[in-house]
Amino acid sequence: MAGLATAGMASCKGKNDNASVTKSEADGEVPADKMEMRTCPTTGDKVSLLGYGMMRLPHRPKPGADNEDEEEIDQEEVNRLVDYAIAHGVNYFDTSPAYCRGFSERSTGIALKRYPREKVYIATKLSNFNPATWSREGAMEIYRNSFKELQVDYIDYMLLHAVGGGQDCMEELNNRYMNNGMLDFLVDERKAGRIRNLGFSFHGDVKVFDYLLQQHDKYHWDFVQIQLNYVDWEHATATNPGNIDAVYLYGELQKRGIPAIVMEPLLGGRLARVPDFIVARLKQRDPERSVASWAFRFAGTFPGVLTVLSGMTLMEHLQDNLRSYCPLVPLNDDDMTFLKDIANHIAGLNSIPCNECDYCMPCPYGINIPAIFHHYNKCLNEGNIPNDVQDENYRRARRAYLVSYDRAIPKVRQADHCIGCGQCVSHCPQRINIPRELHKISDFVDKLKRESTIL
Ligand code: SF4
Ligand code: SF4
After folding, report:
1. Which one of 185, 265, 305, 380 has the largest count of C-beta atoms within 10 Å of its C-beta?
2. For 227-273, what is each residue's pLDDT tens digit?
3. Model confidence, pTM
4. Which residue, 136, 107, 11, is CA-closest to 427?
5. Is 202 within 8 Å of 240 (Cβ atoms)?
6. Which is nearest to 170 in space by CA: 136, 214, 227, 133?
7. Could you tell me the distance, in angstroms and rounded to a whole number, from the CA of residue 362 to the centre of ligand 1?
8. Atom 1 in ligand 2: residue holding the nearest Cα
9. Per-residue pLDDT tens for 49-108?
10. Residues contacting ligand 2 via CB (< 6 Å)
C-alpha cells in the first residue's frame, strides 16, 4: 500500500540535510569500527549514534514515463548507501509511511531485507495525518501495511508521528491515537513483541509533549524523538514563535530516564548552509571539520541521546556524518560557549524555519511553498536580502534576489499566487504560518520590483 493517502506525505527527492559538504571534506578514510554506540535503557539495544533517516532517498528518472520529471527511488543507490552505512557501524534506520510520497518503507524494506533481521533496528511511525485515517480501521491499515512494506514481523521502534501539531493539537492527538484505541493497541503490540520500543515524535505545542510525559507511568515510553540542535537548544522560540527550546524537552526526558532520539540536528539543513561569516568562524576554529559536523557533535555530546537522525541522499554526506561519530569527539565547555555565540547570530537572522519536509505539499493552488522559503533563506544567508536603500550593495542584492527567484520558482508557483486558504497550515510540523510568510515574501518582492523601476 505504498502511496496510502496520508495528507502531508513528504517527497524526498533532491534534498540533502548537509548539502554544503565539499568534496574535500568528504574525502579520506572513514573508520569502519569506531562508531559511537549508545544503549537503550529498556531493551539494552546497542544503537549507533548516527541513525539513517530514510526520508531523503536518492531518486532517478522513471523508466518509460511520459513526463521526464517523473522520478522513482533509485533502489540500487539506496542499497549502496545502506551497505556503506552498515559497514561503518550504522544500525538504526528510521522511516515512515509518509516519507518519499509513501515509498520509503518499501525501499527501506528492500535494502534491509538483505541483512539478518537482528543486525538492524528499524523505526517507523503511525503516520495517520489524514483525518480519513483517524478511524480504527484507517489507522490499523497503515499500521499493518508497515509490516508488509518493511517485510518484517516486528518493529524495533514504533512512533506516534509528529504529535503536537494541528490547529487543536490535543484534539488531534485524541482523534489520531486515543479515541480510536490505537495507543492502547500499540501498548498491547509491545507486550506481544511485535513492537520492541514505543515512543512518539514531537513537533509543536508543548502541552502535548507535557501531557504524554505525564502519562509515562501508564504508557512507559521507551524513547521520545525531539528536534534538537545548537540553535533550537535555546532559540527555538526565536526561530519559530510556536516552538519550545530543546533544553526543556531534553531536560524533561532526562528527569524520567527516557532516551532522546534527535531529529533535525541540522535544523532542516540550515546549519550546513550558514552565512559565509559563520563558515569562516567555524573553519577558523577547526579547519579540518565540515560546517555540518559541529551540529552533529553538538547533538551527540548529550549522553541521554540514543541516536541522531540524518536524511542522507549522497555518499559524501553519509561519509561526513560518519566521520563526526567514528569516533565522537564530544564538545568541551569552550566549544559549547563558542557554539552558543554562533547560535545567537543565526537566531538573529530571521530566517523562516522551514526544513523542506514537504508535508504541506501539494498546495491545491500550485504554490511551491518549500522552494519559496528555501530561496528566501538562501538569499538571507548569502546577504542578498536587500533592506537598506542607503547600502551600497542594495541594487546588487535586489537584482540578485529577483533574478534568482524567477529562476528558482516558475511565476505561477510563486508566493503572490497564494490565496490564503490555510489548507497547508495544519500539516506544518514547524508550525509556520505559511500564508502569512508567503504574503510577507510576496509584499517584499513587490516592493523590490517597484523600486527597481524607480531607483
Ligand atoms: S494558504 Fe496558500 S500556500 Fe497554503 S494551501 Fe492555501 S494557497 Fe496554498
Ligand atoms: S512549510 Fe512546514 S510543512 Fe512545508 S516544507 Fe516547510 S517545514 Fe515542511
Report:
1. 265
2. 999 999 998 876 666 678 999 999 999 999 999 999 999 988 889 98
3. 0.84
4. 11
5. no
6. 214
7. 9
8. 354
9. 999 999 999 999 998 888 777 899 999 999 999 999 999 999 999 999 999 989 999 999
10. 354-360, 369-370, 373, 427-428, 430, 432, 434
